[in-house]
Amino acid sequence: MVSVALVRTIFLFAGISDDALQQIASASILKRYERGQIVLQTESPGTLPAKYLYVLLSGRVRVFLQHPDGKEVALAELGRQDFFGEMGLLDDLPPSASIETLESMEALLVPETVFKQYLVGNAQVTISLIRALVHRLREADRKIESLALLDVYGRVARLLLDLSEEVEGKRVLQKAPTKTDIARQVGASREMVTRVMRHLEESRTILVEKRKVTLLKSFRNG
After folding, report:
1. Helix 179-186 with 152-163: angle, nearest 10 deg
2. CB distance 214 to 206 below 8 Å
3. Residues 88-104: pLDDT tens digits?
4. What predicted TM-score, i.e. pTM, was given to this entire model?
5. Residue 88 burial (CB < 10 Å; 0-12/13-18/19+)?
6. Fewer Cβ in 10 A, N or C end of the chain?
7. 3-7 long-range contacts, CB within 8 A, separation 24+
8. Which of 108, 102, 115, 99 is nearest to 32 (CA)?
9. What is the DSSP string of 55-101?
10. CB-count burial class (<10 Å; 0-12, 13-18, 19+) for 193
């Protein structure tokens, strides 16, 4: 059973009344998924899977498109407090992208009727949703710009910079994506990404220590 205390921790429902929280908790369900499990697929009809808002309580998922020839394009990774499935609730169409778990995951599934009820009746929920969608749109714009204007070298460099974080004055990826994941995200072959990463390392632009990648001064100045 879903508790009110749990629903209260979800930023999307911040500011709504205790009665509303209780109704959301009563109608929603908790579901666990194993690593590598497909949660939504683009070819799925708008039936049961598309009729929930999925809020991640733990774990991570990847959002991707798969072409008929088997090639994939990674669109995003989502983690705790992120959500997906909202587009199918808003336009009654099948999912626009597929969702796969990157690790074991627990999600809160909010039924369509309940979600729409509080979307219409509560301005704070609507504003939170709009802000999250605007953020995703900005990220999509950056990805489109990168694919259109940068070569593979530039796309890999931008991805590394975007994924890095400041640690003691250095930009660091504590656990960098695999070359296969990087290839999916930048729209290139794994072989091309391998060559780019090797060149960055040999030119002392990055320092690679197992999965940890440090962006060196020459990278940031370049």
Report:
1. 110
2. yes
3. 888 877 888 899 999 99
4. 0.68
5. buried
6. N
7. 6/57, 6/108, 7/108
8. 108
9. EEEES-EEEEEE-TTS-EEEEEEE-TT-EE-HHHHHH----SSEEEE
10. buried
